[in-house]
Amino acid sequence: MKVRTMQSSLIAAGLLALVAIVPAAQAQDNRSDWRQDTREIRQDRRELRNDYRELQADRADYARARANGDVQGMRRERNEIRQDMAEIRRDRAELRHDLRERRQDSQHASWNDERRQHWNEQRNDRVEHRREAWQDHHRNSGIRSTGWNGSSGSAANAGTTGATGSNGNNGRHLGWQIGRGNPHGS
Question: How far apart are CA 144 and CA 40, in angstroms?
C-alpha cells in the first residue's frame, strides 16, 4: 500500500513538473524569437547606414571626377551610385519586412488571447440576443410550436381575435390600414 502511494505521488510530481516546464519553455522560445528579430533589425539598420556612407563617398568621387573633367571617372562613379541606390532599396525592403514581421508577431500574440476571447463573447451575446428575439416574436405572434395542443383555450382566443389576429393586422403593412389608398382597408 505504501509503495502504491509513493508511486502515485511520484507520478503526480512528475506531471506537475511537466506542466510547469512547458509554459516556461514557450516563453523562452518567444523571447529567443524576439531577440533574433532584434538582431536582424539591428543588422539591417547597420547595413543601411553603411550603404549610405558608400553612396556619399561615391557622390563625392563623382563630384571630383566632374571637377577634373574626367568623363570615364564620372561614368564609373555613376554606375557605382546606381549600384549603391539599388543596394539601399534592397536593404530598406529587408528592414521594412523585418519590422512588419515583428509588429505582426507582437499584435498576434495579444490577439490570440484577448481579442479572440472578446469576439467569442460578443458572438455568444449576439446568438443569445437573436434566440431571445426569436422566442419573443413567436410568443407574441400567436405561432405555436408543433407540440401545441389546440384544445386548451384556443377556442376562446379564436372567437375574439377573428381572422386578422389580435392586432388587426392581416399581414399588410400597418401604414396601409385606415385610408391612405388602401383598397382592402376599413
Answer: 67
Spatial contact of 41 and 99, defined as CB atoms under 8 Å apart: yes
Phi-psi map region of 168: left, alpha, beta (phi>0 left; psi -120 to 50 alpha): left
| C-alpha triplet 70, 76, 82: angle, nearest 5° | 135
Tens digit of each residue's pLDDT (9 = 90 or more) over 157-183: 444 445 555 555 555 555 555 555 656
DSSP state of 176: G
Judge residue 177's burial from the number of C-beta atoms within 10 Å of its C-beta, 0-12 exposed, 13-18 middle, 19 or more buried: middle
Q: What is the band of 144 on the pLDDT scale with cuts at 50, 70, 90? A: low
DSSP secondary structure string, 46-113? Answer: HHHHHHHHHHHHHHHHHHHHHHHT-HHHHHHHHHHHHHHHHHHHHHHHHHHHHHHHHHHHHHHHHIII
Mean of pLDDT values over 151-159: 48
Query: φ, ψ for residue 147 (rounded to 5)?
Result: -90, 10
Look up the pTM and report it: 0.43
Q: Is residue 159 within a helix (H) or strand (E), and if so which, with residue range?
A: helix 154-161
